[in-house]
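[AMINO ACID CHAIN]
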Amino acid sequence: MPSEPWVDSERLAEHLGKSVFTVRRWAQSGIIPGRKVGGGWMFRVSEVDDSVNRQPADPWIQSPRSRGRRRIT
């Protein structure tokens, strides 16, 4: 059984109908599974489709970047 080929962020963005920047941001934050190879990201389409379809969109989720910030009171 041949393994599924890896695709780059540009091809995955076309598949999902999103921008390349969105795909890279999702990969960096762990929303979609991907592997950092050299200077770019590589993905398996079936893994990404499973994770995107499985996770409901939560509009109140806090980004990992903002978790470390402290509020000024």
DSSP finds four helices and three strands in the chain. The helical segments are 9-16, 20-29, 45-54, 64-67. The beta strands are 7-8, 35-37, 40-43.
